[in-house]
Design goal:
This protein has 229 residues and is an alpha/beta fold. Helix content is 38%, strand content 15%. It has a single domain (6-227), classed as Spore Coat Polysaccharide Biosynthesis Protein SpsA, Chain A. Helix 2 (44-50) links the parallel strand 2 (32-37) and strand 3 (54-57).
């Protein structure tokens, strides 16, 4: 049976070279692909529109800002499941079917696409990304008793469960906020293996010292904020 009510949100900042490839490989049963153009200075918006996506503009810089903009656009639509993935072609969009399967078949609330459980192309993740994921997931297990292997961006969640989380992070802490809140609210969560390849272009987070430091700070801030509640 063809899944119904599947919406995809893709934050995109200067991803004109890759966004069309991402869109082209998303399964055709997806109801709508929403690309949030996050203050790009290249032709990301034009490329996404040409590839068939709905394009929204979010001039406030930040991954979380872009995700929140995409969620806002779902109001009034018949959304059942929301999928998030990156615009840089590091994910394999065709694996969306595997990512949403536990939601449809086993009534899970949230599914994380785990790069740690899948196959990573050499050089697709920097040492600081690998260490950061290792540290964050172990702190989450220590403080909350929930086992994650990754904070990967490729994930799917039931729409109403997403709204109930009242997401608020505006920048680098988006993924960990979602996983922490899901743990606190006792959501039924699982991980599925996803593959990961070297992205097109340079990462705006792990590709710079500033991005790496700020991302690490935000992730740890969210963990300790919830641990102390």
């Amino acid at each position: 049976m063809t899944p119904q009510g599947i919406f995809v949100i893709i934050p995109a900042f200067n991803e004109a070279l890759s966004i069309d490839k991402v869109i082209a490989e998303i399964p055709t049963y997806v109801e709508e692909i929403i690309v949030v153009n996050n203050n790009s200075s290249d032709h990301t918006a034009e490329a996404a529109k040409k590839a068939g996506a709905t394009v929204l503009d979010e001039p406030r810089q930040g991954y979380g800002f872009a995700c929140l903009k995409g969620i806002e656009a779902l109001k009034g639509k018949d959304a059942a499941i929301v999928v998030f993935l990156d615009a840089d072609y590091s994910d394999y969009p065709a694996e969306l079917t595997d990512v949403i399967a536990p939601l449809l078949e086993e009534d899970y609330d949230l599914v994380i696409g785990s790069r740690d459980l899948g196959q990573k192309e050499a050089g697709s993740m920097t040492p600081q990304q690998i260490f950061g994921n290792w540290l964050a997931t172990r702190l989450i297990k220590l403080f909350f008793g929930v086992t994650y292997t990754d904070l990967g961006p490729f994930r799917a969640i039931k729409y109403q469960k997403l709204i109930d989380l009242q997401m608020e992070d505006q920048t680098y802490g988006w993924t960990v906020e979602m996983q922490l809140k899901a743990a606190k609210q006792k959501y039924k969560v699982t991980e599925v293996p996803v593959n990961y390849r070297v992205r097109i272009g340079q990462s705006k987070v792990s590709g710079t010292l500033k991005g790496t430091v700020l991302a690490g700070y935000k992730i740890l801030s969210w963990i300790f904020k919830y641990a102390l509640k």
